[in-house]
Fold each of these.
Amino acid sequence: MSTELTTGTAASRERGFYRALVIRRQLILAGLTLALGLSLCVDLALGPARFGLGEVIAALVTPDAVSQQARVILWDIRMPVALMALVVGASLSIAGAQMQTILSNPLASPFTLGISAGASFGAALALAFGVVLVPAAVDYVIPLNAFVMAMLTAFAIHALSMRRGVTIETIVLLGIAMVFIFNALMALIQFFASQQAVAAVVFWTMGSLTKATWPKLWIALGVLVSVLPLLARHGWALTAMRLGDAKAESLGVKPRALRLEVLVLVSLLAAIAVAFVGTIGFIGLVGPHIARLLVGEDQRFFLPGSALCGALILSVGSVLSKVILPGTIIPIGIITSLVGIPFFLFLVLSHKKASW
C-alpha cells in the first residue's frame, strides 16, 4: 500500500513539474510575441519622418485617425519593409533550426551550408550579365535566379549525401565546400563585370530590406505559412531525431526520408527569403540557439520559438540599421553578420560533441 502511495505521489509530482514547464514555455513564447510587436512598432516609427509610438499604434488600429501623409508613409512605404523583416527572420531561423535538427550539428544553417551563397550567385548572374534562368518571368529575374540556384544547391548537397559511406559530418563539409565554390564564382563575376554591375552585386550581397514590396511580402509569407504546418506535422518525429538515427528508427521514424523532406522544405524557406532581400547571414544560426536555450528541444515550442527569435532578431536589426548612423540605412546583412560572427565563434570554441 505504501509503495503504491509513493508511486502515485511521484507520478503526481512529475505531472505537476511537466505542467509548470509547459506554462513556463508558453509564457516565454508570449513574451517573445510582445517583444516582437514592440520592435515592429519601433521599426515603423523610425525613419526620415519620425512618429511617436502612440501615433504608430493609432495608424495600425484605425488608419483614418492619422493624417494621409502618415498613413501613406506607415502603410505603403514602411509596413512592407517591417513585415518583411519578420517573415524573412522567421523563415531563416526555422530553416536553421530544422537543419540543425536533421543533421545533429549546431553549426548547420542556410548560410553555412551554402544555400545563401548559391542564391547570391544566381542573383549575381542576373545583375552582372543579364542571365535569365526562368525566361517566363522576366520581371522577377533576380529573385527567381536566386531561388533556382539555392534549390539546386540544396539538391546537390542531398544528392552527394546519398552516396554510400557519407555521414552527417560529411554533409556539413559539403555545404562548407559549396560556400567556397560560390564565393570563388562570385569573385570571378565581379572580375569580368562592369563597375556599375559590380556595385549592384556587392549591394545585393550585403542584404537589404528596403526594396520590399507588398507582392514580394505576400509571396514570402505564403511560403512560410505553407511550410509551417508541414514541419509541425513532423514535430514528434523531429524531436525524436535529436536522439540519433538508431533511436529514432526504434520509435518508428524513417530518418532518411524525413531528412530529405525537411531539407527540401527548409531550402524552400531559405531560398525565398534570400531571393527577395539578399544575403542575410547568421539568423539561421543564432535564432535557433536562442530558442533552444529558452524553450528546449520539444518541437511544439522549439518551432514557434525559433520563428519568433529569428523574426525578433531581424526586426531589431532593422531598427539598429536606422539608428546607428542617423539619416543612413545600413544594409541589414552587415548588422546581422556583426552580431552573428561573435556568436558563431563562441559556438565553435565551446562546441562539445557530447552535447550534440
Amino acid sequence: MKVALINPPKIHQVWAGVPDIFNGKDIYLFPPLGIMYLSSAIKHFTKHQVLLFDAQPFDMDAVQVADAAAAENPDVVGITVQTHNLVDVHTVIKRLRDKLPKVHIIIGGPHCWTFPEKAILIPGVDAILRGDGERAICEWLDALESNSGKEKVAGIYYKDEKGEIHQNEIRHVEKHLDELPFPDRDSLPRERYYTPGMKSSKTTTLITSRGCPYQCNFCNTYQRYSVRSAKSIVDEMEHCRDKYGIEEIHFIDDLFNRTSERVIEIANEMMSRNLKMRWGFKATCRQTTPEMLKIAKEAGCTKIHYGVETGTDEGLKSLNKSLTVEEIKKVFKMTKEADITSVAYMMIGIPHEKNRRDIMKTIRFINELDPDYVVYALLSPYPDTPLFQTGAELGLYEKDCWDKFIDNPEANYNLPTVWEEHMKKDELIKLFKKAHRDFYFNPSKVIRTLVKISTPSEFKRIFRGGMSLLKMELINGRAEHRL
C-alpha cells in the first residue's frame, strides 16, 4: 500500500504560552521527528511505500498540503495532531475526503493521547493511534492490507464498516528504543529546517528519550519514561555526520539529564570515537553536577537549556519543581565556569504572582542569574494538567472549555491561554515585554552576545531573534491579544 504521512500547518493554532512572534519560522523550524520515525519504521519493518508531507517549511495551508498528498493517490493517510492545531487538521481531513473519498485516514500525536474518545469522533477519521506509534502503524497497515487482525493491534481505536467504534488494548511504552531505525531524514528537505542560536548551518535535531518522570503541575508531557543507550545515540550522531554532513546537534528530549551519569556516559561514548560535533540539550538543574558539565564540555557540548520557570522558592514550590533558588544559582554559576552557554526558560504569570511586584522579583532574579539567553513564556493552563484543573475549580474558566473547542474547533476560539486569577492578559503581556526589554536591551548583554558570535549562520539566527524582539515592542493595543 501507499502511505502518506502529513505534518499539518499551524496557521490557526491556538495561542499558548509562547507568543506567535517567538514561535514561528523566524526563530526556528524543527524537523517533524514524529512522522519521520513512523516513515523509517514503515520502510524498515514492512514493504509498504511511504511519502512525507510537511506543510510548515513550504508555508502551505491546510488545503495545499492535503492536495499535495492526494495527488499521490495514497491508500492510507496519517496525520500528526496537536489539540492546539485542530482547526487546520479538520481542514486537511475534509479536503482529503473531498479528493479521496475512500482513503483510510488515521491520526496520531499528543491530541490522540490526551483525548482519544474525542479524536476518533473527528469527521472523516477512520482510526487513531494512541501512544508510541512505530510498531503500531506497521501492524495496522498490515492488518488493513490483509483485512484481518485489526482488533489485535494495540494502541488503536477504529471504526468498522458500520461506523461502530472499537477500542483496542493500550500499547505499552516502547522500552526498546534502540531497536527502532533512525528517523527518515532523506524524505524531507534538510536545508529548510533550523534551530535557534546554533553556530553551524548544518544542524539537526535528535531525541534520545521519551516522556519525563517529573510531575511539574503545568506540564502535559506524559510520564512514561524510556531512554536509548549511549551507543545508539552516538551511532545516530555519526550517521548524521557521515551521511548528511551535520556539524551540530540539538537534543530535543523533554529531559536529557535524567541523571548526570547518563550525560557523562553519552559524552564519554562520543570522545571514545573521537566524534567532533557541537551539541546542546534541555536539562533540569536537579541532576546537574560539575563533573557532568566538565565532561560534556570536553565532548563538544556548547549550550544547555535549563527549565528554571520562576525566581522565588514560593513559585518553585507552587509548580512542584522540587528545587530552590539557591540550587539554581549554583548550577548557572557552574555552567558559566565550565564555559558552556546557558539558556534559562522562564514563565510570567504564575499563580503565586499576585501583582506586578511579584513578577518583578522573577525579572530581577534573571538579571542576577545572568544566563546567556532567556526564553520567556506566559504561563498557559494546558487542558490536561493539574494546573488546569485548579483553574477550573477557581472558576477562572469553564471546566469543559477545551471540550467545547474540540467538538467544534474554530479560528479565534476564546480559550484560557494565560492565568488571569490576579492580573488580566493585557497587563501580563506588558510585563512579558518588559522582561524581554530588561534582559535583551541591556547594552552589556548585547555586547557579550555579539562578541561570542563566530559564524555567519549564528549571526543570522541571532539577528532574526533580535528582529522578533523589535517587532514585539511595536505591537500594542488590540494586537497584543494576537502576540
Amino acid sequence: MRFGFAKVEITPRVGVELCGFGPYVLRRSVGIRDRLWARAMAVESEGARAVLGSCDLVGLSAALTGEARRLVEAATGLPNTAVMLHCTHTHSGPSIGEYIGWAEADAPYLALLPGRIARACAEALGNLQPATLSHAVVPCEGVGINREQEQAPDPWQQVLADDWRPQRPELTDTECQVFKVETNGRLAGFASYFGCHPVVCCADTRYIHGDYCGVATNLLEREHPGAVGLFLQGAEGDVNSCVVHKPEQESLLALDVIASRYARAVRSGLAAALPVEGDCLRCISREVTFSRKPWGREHLVALLAEQAAVIHAPDAADADGEVRMAVVRATALRQMIGRLNTGQSLQPPTELQGLRIGPISFLGTPFEVFQRIKNEVVAESPSPLPLVLSQTNDSLGYAVEREVAARGGYAADLVPLIIGSLPFADLHGELMNSLRDLDRELAADCPPACPD
C-alpha cells in the first residue's frame, strides 16, 4: 500500500462569528489561540485510490462537501465516492451557516473553504509513497463523561486531577485507536480515533482553536516535524468532555489539561503500534432515506403560530433567549412549509460512506452518534476493526438512542429544527441497520486480503 499526507490551514480571519452555544449570541472571535487545519490522508492499493480528510470545523454541509469533492476530481481525477470528508466538531471555529441562528457564516471564508480542503486532499494524493501502517489500542481515560447518564462532578475542579474518572466510564470511550504510517523509517502521518464531544470552552470564550482534540493534534505534530495527524471523531453525541461551559479562564486552563491527557494517550499509541496485515482498499457511498416524524402541513402551521405568539408578545425582547429560540423555530418551520409549497420532500436522502483500509472499516455518518448505537454497530460488524465516524460529509444533528428519542427535547427534536429539518422517527434502528449493511458490503470484498 502507499500513503500520502498533507494539510492546509483553514483558520478564519479574526472577527468571524464562532459556532455553537445558542441562538443569535453574536460570538465574534477576538484572537487565534490555535490554528485550524484541513488534513488529509490518501491511500492507494493495486491501482485503487481514496482519501480521508479531517477538518477542524463544527461540520460541513453537503453542498460544501460536494464542491470540495468536485475540485478534488478536477485536480486529480479521483471520483467523489472515493473522497470522505470528516470534521472534528469544534465549537471554537467558524460557522458554516448550516445551523439556523447558531452564528452567521462569513461568505468570503465559505467561498475559499472547499478549495482549501480540496488542496489538502490533492496534495495528499500527490505525496503517495510506499509505507507501513501500524495500529494500537491504548487506554484513554479522564476525558469524557456521559451527559445523558451522569451528572457533572461537583466541585468541577476535581476533574483536573490526573486520577479523576467518571462514575460510569463504560458509557464513554475509555480507549483510543491510534494509526501510524511510516515511510523509510520516518513518521509520515498518524490518525487517532476517539468519541467525545470536543467542546471544553464556553459561550464567553471568543478565541479560535480546535478544542481539546485540535490542540492535542497540533501539539503532537510539533513533536514530530513533517508528520500530519488526523483526529477522527467517534460516537460523541452523548459524551461531553469532563469540563464544559465554565468561565473563560477556567475553560482555557481545562482545555490544556484535557488536550494534554489526550495527547498522552495518542503518544503511547504511536510508541506501541504494530504493523497491520492486509492491503485491500474499498470506498463506497450509499444514500439512505431515514423516516421522519409525520409532521404534515397542518401541524407545521400550528407550530409556527405558537412561535409567532412568543415573538409578537407585548413584552418580547431580542435579549430574551426564548424569543431568539422562537425565531429559530419559526425560520425553520417557514422553510419547511415553503418546501412543501413547491413540492419538495421533507425526507431527503442522507449519505453514508464506508472506507475499508486493510482490516479497518471507517463508517462515516453525518450525525453526532450516541455511544449505544456505535456499540451495537461494532457488536454486529464483520470487520476486524470497525470505526463509526460522526460528522462526515454533512452535518445533520444527533443520532440519539431510542430512550432519548422517546423523551424528545433538545437532541431529538430541537436540533433537527435548527438545521431546518423534521425530527427522525427511528434513527437508532435505521442507522444501525444501514451501517451494518454498509460494513458487510465493504467486508464482502476484503476478507481474503484482510484476515482477522
Amino acid sequence: MKRRIAEETVLFISILKWFILATLIGVIVGFATMVFLKLLAWSLAFSDKFPYSFLLLPLAFFLSALIIKYLAPDAKGHGTEKVIEAVHRSSGKIKAAVVPVKLVATIITIALGGSAGKEGPCAQIGAGLSSLFADLFKFDDHDRKKLVICGISAGFASVFGTPIAGALFGVEVLFVGSVLYDVLLPSFIAGVTSYHVSNALGISYFYHPLHFVPQFSEFFFVQICVAGVFFGICALILIETLRLGEYLSKKLNLWTPLNGIVGGAALVALTFLISKQYLGLGLNTIENCLQGQIVPWYSSFAKMIFTSITLGFGGSGGIVTPIFFIGATAGSLYATWAGLDHATLSAIGFVAVLAGAANTPIAASVMAIEVFGPQIAPYAAVACVISFLMTGHRSVYPSQVLLVKKSQSLDVNVGQEMQDVRAVLNLRKKSWSQSFKNAYVFVKRRFSGPEK
C-alpha cells in the first residue's frame, strides 16, 4: 500500500512539474513567435510596395549566408532539421546566438522573395529559447531534451494555429515510426499555451473549413488512395530536389556567401522566365487552390525548384510552408486529372505531402481536422498514411532516426539517421516463388474446371 501511494505521489509531482515547465515554455515561445511573425509581416508589407524587390535576392542570400556562417552556423537551412540533429546528437543543446541570427536571416530571405517558410525559424527559435531556459536553471540532459521538444511543439503550434497537430509534430518528427509518449503531456501543454499567447497578442491564423466533401463511395475512396500514392511521389521528388540543390551548391566549391549571390541570381532569372508566383511564402496561391481555382499544372514542381535553390544556396527559412504550397497545387493537378473537386483534393494534398516529406502522418492527419474541419478527416488520414509509405526511407529532415521498416520486403538498418539509411530489396525467393505457384494453381483450378 505504501509503495502504491509513493508511486502515485511521484507521478503527481512529475505531472505538476511538467505542467509548470511546459506552460512557461509555451508563454516564452508564444511571445517570441508573435515578435517574429509581426516583424515578418511588416517586412513583407514594406517589400510589397516595390514590385521588383526580388532583384535584391542575390544580396539577400549573400547577407543571410554571411551572418549565419560567422555568427551561428547552426542556423543554416530550414531550422527544424538542426533542432532534430541537436536533440539526437547533443541532448538538445542549442547555442543562444541561433535565435536572433535565425530570425534576422529568415526575414531577409522571405521579405525579398526567397522561397521558404516560417515554421522552421519558429521551431528553431522555440527550441533555442527552451535550451537556454534549461541551461539557466541547470536542468540535466534528459530534461533539456524534453524542454527542447516542447519548444518545437510550441513553435509549430503558434506559427500555424494548430495546437494539437503542433504538439504531435514535436513528438513525431524526431523518430520515424515512433511517438515519444513521455513528452506527450508537456508538448500538448506547451503547444496549447503558445497558440493562445500568440493569438492573444494579435496573431491571426488561417482556417478554411471545407463546405464540400463528396459523399462516400467505393470509387471515390479508391481515387483517394491513388491520390495518396501521387502525393507520396510528389514528396519523394521534393526530397530529391532539395538534395540536388545542396549537391549543386557544394559542387560550386565557392565561399558560402558567394554561393548566395549565385543562387539569388538564378532565382531572379527563373522569376523572369516563369513567374513571381513561386517566390516568398506563396500563401495567395495556397488560398486560391483551397477555393477551387485551377493553377498551372507545373506549379508544384516549380515551387520545388525555387525552394531547393533558396535553401541550398544561402537562404534561410522553413520547409513546411513550401510543402503546403506543393501539396495544395499537386492536389489541384490531381483533381483535374481525376475529375474531382479541386478544393477537396487541394486540402488533402496540403497535409498528405507533409506526411510523406516529413514522415509525420499522425500530425498531418490531425492538422487536416484543425484546419479544414472533421468531414475531411477519414480521406485525409488515408492519403497521409499512403503518402508516408510511398516516400520510402527518405525525409526532408535527414537527421530523423528510423525505428521501423516501411515494408518487410526491404532490408534497412533500423536505428540509423535517415541520411545514412540504404534500403535493399529482399525478395525472399522461396516464399515469393511459392506464392506465385499457389496463385497459379488457384487460377488454373478456378477457370479450367475439375480434371477428368
